[in-house]
Amino acid sequence: MPLIALTGGIASGKSTIARRLTEHGAVVVDADALVREVQTPPSHVLDLIAAEFGAGIVGPDGALDREALGRAVFGDPDALARLNEIVHPAVRELSARRFAEAFARDPRAVVVYDVPLFVEARVDGPWDLVVVAHAPAAVRRDRLVSERGMTAEDAARRIAAQAPDAARLAVADVVVDTAGSLSHTIEQVDELWRRVRS
Q: Which of 4-8, 108-112, 120-124 has the lowest mean pLDDT?
């Protein structure tokens, strides 16, 4: 019953790896989806965020205005740290429940936690393997501009707001090089799956 942490910087190809592992039969728990879940009203987490950053981050429908929150925290390390102090404990608790549920359904399951902010929030977890999707920052910046329509400045700011590549690579048991072709990435993921299943 391996529990694998999958991380990587923004636009590093992490989702491609997670999709391929799902095709092999892994149970993927998506940290971003859990973040959205703990912030969905009615939500104690959302109440704490609004108290910290102001009622302007809640839209007329009572839901979190993600763009407003992004403007409030990106580029401001102190604000981002305050947000993480609110969100990370709730996500840790919910993710632990999801892991337990997956193993209760199938004790032989391979559970993969797709977690962008692993170094920032989860490095001390019960991981059997830490997998890092890695492409140089310049490659990821170009992807954000060409595939997600960001300006180069916004892309650079998003990358800078995350842990540096060296910090992720330092905790990796396996590095999947995602800078090349899609087929090269898939080959590495298939090899990872064989390793995990053997």
A: 120-124
